[in-house]
Amino acid sequence: MTSLQVAAISLAIASVFGLAGAAAKLSSSRVARGVVDVYTTVIRGVPELALMLMVFYGGQTLVNYLVQRAGGEYIEVPAFAAGVLTIGFVFGAYMTETFRGAILAIPKGQMEAAASIGMTRSQVLLRITLPQMIRHAIPGFTNNWLIMIKATALVSIIGLDDMMQRAGLAAAATRQPLDFYLAAAAIYLAITTISILLLSRVEKRFSLGVRKVEFK
Amino acid sequence: MIDFSIIASSMPNFFAGLKVTLVLLVISLATGLVLSIPLGVARVSSNPWIAKPVWLYTYVIRGTPLLVQLFIIYYGFAQIEFIRNSAAWSLFREAWFCVWLAFAINTTAYTTEIIAGALRATPSGEVEAARSIGMSTFDMYRRILLPSALRRALPQYSNEAVGMMHATAIASTVTLVDLTRVARDVYANHLVTVESFGTVAVFYFVLTFSLIGLFRLAERRWLKHLRPQELSHVNEPMVHAK
User: Fold this and answer.
1) Contact (Cβ atoms closer than 8 angstroms) between residue A45 and residue B209
2) Which of A53, A64, A90, A147 to mutate against chain B (most B CBs within 10 Å)?
3) For B72-107, how does the pLDDT look when each residue is reduced to its tens digit (9 = 90+)?
4) Least confident of A63-77, A97-111, A156-170, B15-29
5) Is B178 helix (H, G, I), strand (E, B) or coil?
6) B191: left (phi over 0), alpha (psi -120 to 50) or beta
7) Considering only alpha carbons, which residue of chain A is nearest residue B56?
């Protein structure tokens, strides 16, 4: 269950980072664009495992440095929070690109038309941009989610009590590593299969009224 | 703030780790590429007895984490009597062999799908033309389908290569001393984050962009026909090399 919790909460965090990142990349502020450019480039250039270790240990040090500065006691950052924040932060970079592409895929005229009939900015966002962005973002979103599910297996390395950790403990206790790791693989396969089926239904739902291109 | 003496003193270790990472990357990608070309051809076969097993293989591998695959091979296979008693055991006992096997199986699955996708994108006229002049299936694949499909696969394959480079960090979990392992050791010895993980991030970052640069060069070479025409060359006299 921990694996699923990690995946679900990381997904929420990644989506928030992704939306904020996409908004910043498309904004007119130079500073915001520059910051997000550095974020997406650096994150996508370094392995998740290395980043996870860096945020896990580095975050620990940083938090305690700040706490000590404020005169507090040493605190242990929980592995769960560190893992979830790291995965969310890392995949937020991938989500940024997905959402940015999805927003760019909406014809600009629609936003202009909405503004011209007097919609406020938030109305344009909620009624025009978001619903269509979701449709364009689903394929990339599905991909990121599938990669993320598999990346959650890495949180066992920073000591989180997830499925891999449990499988490892059970394997050590029973001396039957093959059985337990095969079981873990089967569960991951089930999760990815269900995800693919569900998200293809969501995609159909959001693509109602859009004609599909047919290849002959 | 940053202790450069720690970085400097661990540089030899980092470069040794870089070598391990690069060797892992090259042997995995090379094995994967060699295996995925025939498998990609099998994947698009109209015979379900050939295509379905390949589909199942790529589906299972792409649906499970590489870490699990590696653990099954490295820890799990030791449980099987048959392997422990066979001559292959001396291989399966080695972390290097297990990592290579797991990485090769993994990247082969992804690359097979990339090549299959590129093969499916072949214009049907090319197949008809090859058939109409009486080419055998083997010749058609060798002369027409594969050369163009492998070219079309290049941009996607560059993503897979970068992904595989990042995946090599997983080798650090089974005793191999790659870049990530070196960083973890430096951290464990000195308890400093920036000097350990920051340094390794720079290494990976440079590696990523070198790989992307190499693939850009490859695309320039093999996908030349898809680039927009450079007008300055249009007026130059046509020179026919060869």
Assistant:
1) yes
2) A53
3) 999 998 888 777 888 778 888 889 999 999 999 999
4) A63-77
5) coil
6) left
7) A189
Residue A206 contacts B, CB cutoff 8 Å: no
Output DSSP code: residue A152: G
C-beta separation of A56 from A160 below 8 A: no
Cα four-point dihedral sign B137, B142, B147, B150: positive
On the 0-12 / 13-18 / 19+ scale of CB atoms within 10 A, B47 is exposed
Q: Tally C-beta pairs within 8 A across A and B.
A: 110
The CA distance from B77 to A171, in Å, is: 12
Determine the distance in angstroms separating the CA of A70 from the nearest CA of chain B, rounded to an integer.
19
Predicted local distance difference test score (pLDDT) of residue A211: 67
Burial of A202 (0-12, 13-18, 19+ CB in 10 A): middle
Closest CB to A178: pick one of B66, B76, B180: B76
- Measured between CA atoms, the residue of chain A closest to residue B192 is A58
Residue among B77, B184, B205 whose CB faces A53 most closely: B184
Give B3-26 pLDDT, tens digit per residue.
888 888 889 999 999 999 999 999
Per cent of chain B over pLDDT 90 is 65
With CB atoms and an 8 Å threshold, state whether B68 touches A181: yes
Q: Which tokens is B101 given? A: 């096997």
State what percent of residues in chain A have pLDDT above 70. 97
* Domains, in order of start, for chain A: 2-160 (1.10.3720.10)
Q: pLDDT (tens digit, 9 = 90+) per residue, B43-76?
A: 999 999 999 999 999 999 999 999 999 999 999 9
Alpha-carbon distance values, A83 to A6, A50, B81, B170 (Å): 8, 12, 37, 16
Structure tokens at B238: 């046509």
Question: Nearest-CA distance from A111 to chain B in Å?
Answer: 32
Shortest distance between the Cα of A121 and any Cα of chain B, in A, equals: 37
* CA nearest neighbour of A46 among B199, B192, B106: B199
Q: Do residues B166 and A47 make contact, with C-beta atoms less than 8 angstroms apart?
A: yes
The full set of domains in chain B, from first to last, is 4-224 (1.10.3720.10)
* Binary contact (A178, B183; C-beta < 8 A): no
- Spell out a b/e string for B17-27, using b for 16 or more CB atoms within 10 Å of the CB, else e: bbebbeebbee
Gyration radius from chain A CA atoms: 21
Residue of chain A nearest B62, judged by CA positions: A189
